[in-house]
Here is the input.
Amino acid sequence: MTIDTSLLFIGGEWRTAYSGEYFDVLNPATEEVIARVPDAGPEDMKLAIDAAMAVQDRFANTTATQRSKILLAAANLMYERADDLAEIMTREEGKPFLEAKGEVAYAASFLEWFAEEAKRVYGETIPANTPDKRILVIKRPAGLSLAITPWNFPAAMITRKLGPALAAGCPMIVKPSELTPLTALAIAKIFSEVGLPKGALSVVVGKDPVSLVKVAMDDFHVRKVSFTGSTAVGKLLMKQAADTMKRVSFELGGQAPFIVFQDADLNAAVENAVIAKMRSMGESCVAANRIYVQRPILESFTDRLVAKLSALRIGNGMEDGVQVGPLIEPAAVEKVERHVADAAEKGAKIILGGSRGIEVGYFYQPTVLTNVTDSMLITQEETFGPVAAIIPFDTEEEVVERANHTHHGLAAYYFTRDIGRVFRLSEKLQFGILGANDGLPSTAQAPFGGIKESGLGREGGHHGIDEYLDVKYISLGGILSENT
Here is the structure.
């Protein structure tokens, strides 16, 4: 799959940035420049908005079947080009090739799912309060939408937003991370090939995301904003959205607890802990950040986890057998180092890893900490790295209270054979996504999202398309009149 990285995709056309400037995209495993991408500015965002507005009414009035066919064709192309897309992703984001290929399939599944949901947008009739009236409910596209996506899942975080937007009949402007623009441009190329009307999708990326986003947030025509990223940025966007009363859906930061009770299947708990901790090198909002283990099985669990993590091969994700790639940039490595150093200073014991391990690239070894307490940064902030912080606990009541002691509420995991406990914790844990004996709960057909300061709205499932639909009701009078 060949894409021209010297051009942006705006209004269905490939063009240079208004500024004529470019910026470099680096491979985090080698620190080499792999592409130069146009540096879009406010003028480019305005062009994208104008193009979307020009096609909005026509696109909103296409049939659900037409939109469904476009989404399904795009999904099929993603599957066909999975190797090419995965290589692009690995080179710009760092995750191992096989993991990147898995993300491509995951990303395509959202287009498949919402291709079907496009045909399931139903209205209602409601009993009226007088005999001569009828009340009808219809759903219509909310309008031009903006997606602001992160670098850690550069394909899936786009399709999880773009799929429902296009299914609903909403044009969308995607502002991907400047760290990983190539995957976004590759997805744009796919949509340009499957018949998506010009203007229904633009990909605008630049080194100054604040100025780009401000244009869209200030423009009344942008009616919906979907953002995945930090809680701090989400709060700023929410304030900006208030000025024009935009609809928002935010998937923000997490502080996921991973709880292992003494009655759990220990092998399954360890296997799932590796998945929940190490997926995308721990650079995930749903990554296990605090691993609580009931005291009678603490030593056994720790030994097995160390054995699993120590066997993982770290290196360039394009090399065969590599299971752990680099972090995204130097600042990410520095944050992990700061968390580990703070924990060690406060009494934690480093029993695996604890250093970069490879001189070239932004690497950090899989690391295990024991003797971790709630006073350490690693239990208070999102680490976003391959560090497993193990914390002992004694009772169910205690661990629920400690797990909930955070402003975040995105994901939580717990492992137990007690069916009563499964249901109790599903109600007591204050998180939007719960993995009960499951370290990988994300799927296209389920509503992904958090509570508290981890966000608003849901992505995926039949709930996902509702975020892009306005509900209207029509009170129709004069039904019994012969002159109607």
Remarks:
- The mean pLDDT is 97.
- The radius of gyration is 24 Å.
